[in-house]
Amino acid sequence: MNTNLAWLNEYLNQDLDLSQAAVIALGERLERTSVEVDSVFNLAQGQDGLVVAKVLSVKEHPDSDHMVITQVDAGESEPIQIVTGAPNVAEGQLVILAKVGAHIIDRESGKLVKIKKAKLRGEESYGMLSALQEIGFDNKIAPDPIEKGIYVFDPKSGVQPGDDALEALGMLDPIIDTDLTPNRTDMLSMRGVAYELAAILDCQATMPTFQLSEGSQKSADLIQAEVTDEKLADQFGLRVIDNVQVGPSPLWLQRRLWNAGVKPVNNLVDVTNYLMVLFGQPLHVYDYDRLPEKKLTVRLAKDGEKFTGLDEQEYELRPNQDIVISSGDQVLNLAGVLGGQAAEVTEKTKRVVIESASFNPSLVRAAARRHTLHTGASSRFERGIDPSQVESVLDQAAALLADLAKGQVAKDAVYGARHAYQARQVEISVDRINQILGTDLQADEIASIFKRLAFEFENKDGNFIVAIPGRRPDISIPADLIEEVARLHGYDNLPTAYITGQTTPGKLTSRQRQIRASRRVMESLGLNQAISYALTTPEKATRFNANKAAKLVTLDYPMSSDRTTARQNLLSGLLDDVAYNVARSVHDIALYEQGRVFLAKGEKEQPAEIEHLAGVLTGSLVRSSWENSRNVKEVDFYDLKGIVEKYLAEIGMPAVRFEATDRHEAMHPGQTADIYGGDHYLGFVGQIHPAFLQKEKLPQVFGFELDLQSIIDYSQRGQNYEVISRYPQVSRDLAILVDEKVTNADIQNAIEKTAGQHLVESKVFDVFTGGKLPAGKKSLAYQLTYQDKNDTLLEADVNDDVEKIVTVLQQEFNAEIR
């Protein structure tokens, strides 16, 4: 939420200090008391030298068919000549002028650039006439596309030549951007922020009043409202306004919208967005004459219904789940989320219907997630709006449209559902507050805090009965009031309690050490770690589980249809990872995962969480090169069996044996073995069943799954092992030209003697003779691989070592570096 502090000043009886230092300090205070502050900024972003100018004359450029020469009055003694290509420039306009020496934001780099005097096709230009996008406005908030041309002030805006354009556009207004928690819906409105800052600063907030003048014709004679079930909307009101004049909003209104991050559209739409930002109450306006039937109905979507939104996208509605607003059989809105094109207001609109409502937050939230539509309206409805102001905001919208669009308001509003707000009563005692906070606050101090929050309350001998206003739906229980007292009293003022007792140094348990050792060993054996979701489908959850008696653990409210069940194995997740990589042309895959599986004895019992270790192989373990191309082969059962044997030996598991088995349905019956440590079952290893691989369009895959908990329980303690370094390798290619008589063995010996301690491998990968090489010469290409067992190698260290090798090869073999 972008909060314009200059606008907010109108609602506080204490003027805020709008200097940069004071605004930053206020943001820090707000963050320590209420919500997180993302940033403090203004739209100017350091720009200067922008003034309002009046176009005095426009004439064609003698050497250009798209540029013109203008004379503008910038409040100085003499007119200023500006050459521009703006297609909409005309005499008499009030425009934005970036004078010579001004700084504006470059659209491509985002950096400030200085405006200089220029000569365009032989004509001098002393500045630039600007569109809003050329002075930092995003297309999302600029009223017109940049292709339309420069920004033109409304003659009624009150600006004069020479005025500071940044100030006239509100670009110098300080803005605090807050990141809200889901419960603080009040902070999604200027009204809510005003009350919050009034509480923090110990002043008063007062909201603007309005006067509504109604005509003699009744709204009930023009429109009807219906709510089929009040569980969908407990309030739904309409007003009709006739003879509206659609046009741009006045500058004061546009300023407030674009500073709030909202794009001005026209006076009808802008009024609804303005009041949403001001009060947190979303509104919608319909073209009355485009309604199929003079009745608006709030209902659930029906089978097969579709809806085209204002974003020009078509949405297939979820029957009996999405709340819609319809007229006749036509769906007009996805209620609380997005308006539709069917009754959209246009420049030809003459009569409108304004809607103000309170929709079911849960259904709005579900619809927004289902259709991936997160709008300003949905973000407010799904958190819960203030039900006490639904009617008053509707009336204020009508009053504003009567003023700004010259409309005539029909008498009275029409309601399909209407409920008077009853404030919640929450009781809390002074003793309870002090007990929880560890304070010794007096009743009058607590009463002062409730007054600052503008809460009505009654104090009966230290027992407070507080009436919660509708703007604070987050407060419903005594603990919420305790939190309010704590944050306004000041978290820093709460007493500090020190922990007493003997301290002990932290260390890993034996179980934790074994789990970490398992990961290190797997990585040393060439497998990469994968992490899969613990939630999956029932089919995947049980596919490789050898314990058929275990019951499924399912969620009552899953986040999606493929995340409903707690896994009983790790192999299913690893196969998903294999499928993901294969689909992206990765053929050689070696993965392992260490994590928990969830096995329940009964449907209502708490599941046991058991540590497992699983891995998969597919493709080849050996990288192909010219010297070993004949030795490269696809992995097989024995490759994976060897990895499992090596792991169990390293981890300290004695007397391991493998027994052929066909009891695993998802594994190949002829290439699968159960693994035992003594008499204890540890897991299985083998090839994934070909039928499954064919169905999933996967190559031959081998996998294993071990009960890591059993391995930890039965493995020998104190086993020592050494693993391969987990730090990355660095490779360098070196090509040299030497005499044919020089052997590769001589070169290799020289490299190994010269290289430092971090060279782990040197191999020749190319030999070339003949061609354009000198007679009696041959070319040898080597790959040098470096690795440090204890740290990440630096490029500079590797480069120094390679230079030493090059020097020795040049001296001993007269080698030439290619």
UniProtKB/TrEMBL annotation:
Cofactor remark from the record: Binds 2 magnesium ions per tetramer.
Every TRNA-binding domain range: 44-166
Compartment annotation: Cytoplasm
Domain of life: Bacteria
Database matches in PROSITE patterns: B5 (PS51483), FDX_ACB (PS51447), TRBD (PS50886)
Listed InterPro entries: aa-tRNA-synth_II/BPL/LPL, B3/B4_tRNA-bd, DNA-bd_dom_put_sf, Fdx_antiC-bd, Fdx_antiC-bd_sf, NA-bd_OB-fold, Phe-tRNA-ligase_IIc_bsu, Phe-tRNA-ligase_IIc_bsu_bact
Keyword hit for Amino-acid biosynthesis: no
Domain B5: 421-496
Record keywords: Aminoacyl-tRNA synthetase, ATP-binding, Cytoplasm, Ligase, Magnesium, Metal-binding, Nucleotide-binding, Protein biosynthesis, RNA-binding, tRNA-binding
Binding site for Mg(2+): 474, 480, 483-484
Catalyses which reaction(s): tRNA(Phe) + L-phenylalanine + ATP = L-phenylalanyl-tRNA(Phe) + AMP + diphosphate + H(+)
Molecular functions per Gene Ontology: phenylalanine-tRNA ligase activity
Enzyme Commission numbers on file: 6.1.1.20
Cofactor section: Mg(2+)
EC class name: ligase
Oligomeric and partner information: Tetramer of two alpha and two beta subunits.
Family: Belongs to the phenylalanyl-tRNA synthetase beta subunit family. Type 1 subfamily.
Protein name per its UniProtKB record: Phenylalanine--tRNA ligase beta subunit
Organism: Eupransor demetentiae
Organism classification: Bacteria, Bacillati, Bacillota, Bacilli, Lactobacillales
